[in-house]
Amino acid sequence: MDQAWHLHLVYTRSYWQRLCRETLGCELHHEPTSGGAVETGKFTDWYERTLESYRRIFGEDAPQDIWPDPVRRFARAGAGRWVDASAVWLVPKPRFSFLVKLRAFVAGFFSK
């Protein structure tokens, strides 16, 4: 949902005219947060309230593939980064065991 929201913000005319003015009838701003535990708690509460609203309005639970439960939704809060994959390579960090083996290999190579 967050990525869809941010994509919508990029289309400023559609966002301000169609969503804010025509659909909501008010301005809806988006500000960055300071992060941290307090912000995560606030967003978890808001998310839980959103799920409750969905249940009340539609008479069923929100689809889990779009609206996962709060624990799953915030399990990796703050871990994501926005990266232009067309401009950079995304290389996963090696596991610790790999680094130990690599160090042993390099040490053995240079000790000969």
What does this structure look like?
The protein is mainly α. Among the domains are: 1-31, no CATH class; 36-77, no CATH class. It contains 5 helices and no strands. The protein has helices at 2-10, 12-24, 36-58, 70-73, 96-110.
Distance between the termini: 55 Å
Report the C-alpha radius of gyration, rounded: 22 Å
Structural class: mainly alpha
- Give the integer mean of the pLDDT values: 85
The largest sheet, given as strand count, sense and whether it forms a barrel, is: none
**Given the C-alpha coordinates, what overall shape results?**
elongated
Percent of sequence in beta strands: under 5%
Number of strands: 0
| Low-pLDDT segments, ≥5 res | none
Write the layout of secondary structure elements.
Layout: H1 2-10, H2 12-24, H3 36-58, H4 70-73, H5 96-110
Defining traits:
112 residues; 0% strand; elongated
What's this, in brief?
The chain is mainly α and 112 residues long.
